[in-house]
Amino acid sequence: SQTPLIAPSILSADLARLGEDVQAVLDAGADVVHFDVMDNHYVPNLTFGAPICQALRDYGITAPIDVHLMCTPVDALIGDFAKAGASWISFHPEASQHVDRSLQLIRSHGCKAGLVLNPATPTHILDYVMDRLDFVLIMSVNPGFGGQSFIDSALDKLRDVRARIDASGRDIRLEIDGGVKVNNIRQIAEAGADTFVAGSAIFGADDYARTIAAMRDELAA
Ligand code: DX5
Ligand code: ZN
Q: What distance in angstroms lies between residue 113's CA and the mean position of ligand 2's atoms?
C-alpha cells in the first residue's frame, strides 16, 4: 500500500496569516495542503477561490495543493485552480452534470483527479470511472464546516472502496476527510485510508510538529 500522507485543511488555519501558517505546518512535517473550496450553494458556507491558491504559490509554498471543490457547477473552477497551481482537484459527483467529463478535464490540465463521496453517497458511483481516478476522497462528516465529529459509517465505506481499488489493481489513493484526530487515525488507516485530512486536530493544536508526529506514530504502530 501507499506511504501515508498527512494533509492539514487550511479551513482551520490562521487565515489572516495564511502563507506563514501553511509554511509552519509543512515545516512541522505535513505532506499536502488540503484546500477547501465552499460556495454557499452546494454547501452552506463560503471560503476561498483560485486567487488564494495562487497567492500560496506566490508566497513560495511548493508542497502539493489538494483542492477539494464543494461547489456547483465545477467545470469552470477546474481550469481556474489548475492555472493557480493546484496539484490535486476533487469534486462531488452530485455537483457535476457530467462526472466523467469533469474527471477528464482535471487530468487534461495535468492535475490528479478525485471524486468525493458524502456520507450518504453510495460507492457504486465509482464503477465506471475507476480508470479516470487518481484518488477517492471519503467524507466522514457532512461537508461545509471544520470541527465536526467523525461519522462511523465512513469506516465501512473505506473498507468497501479499499476493496474496489485493490480489485482494480490501479494506483489510486484513498483519502479521508472530517473528524480525523490522533486518537482515531489508526482505526481509519486500518479501514484502508492512506491520505489523512485533518483541520482542527492540527491547526487547533499548540504544537503542530508534535501532533503530526503523534499521528505518524499511530500510523506506524
Ligand atoms: C469539511 C472539509 C474538511 C474540514 C475538516 O467540509 O472538507 O476538510 O476542514 O476539518 P476537521 O478535520 O476539523 O474535521
Ligand atoms: Zn475537505
A: 14
Closest atom of ligand 1 to CA, residue 204: 13
To the question of whether residue 1 is assigned a binding role by annotation, the answer is: no
Distance from C-alpha of 53 to C-alpha of 97, rounded to nearest angstrom: 25
CB 80 within 8 A of CB 38: no
Please, which residues have CB less than 5 A from ligand 2, an ion? 36, 68, 177
Break the chain into its structural domains and give their ranges: 5-220
Catalytic member of 21, 39, 134, 177: 177
ipTM computed for the complex = 0.98
Cell of 108: 487534461
Residue pLDDT, tens place only, 43-81: 999 999 999 999 999 999 999 999 999 999 999 999 999
CATH code for residues 5-220 = 3.20.20.70
Choose the catalytic residue: 36, 39, 134, 194: 36
Measured between alpha carbons, how far is 172 from 38 in angstroms, rounded to an integer? 25
Q: What are the pLDDT digits (tens) for 185-213?
A: 999 999 999 999 999 999 999 999 999 99
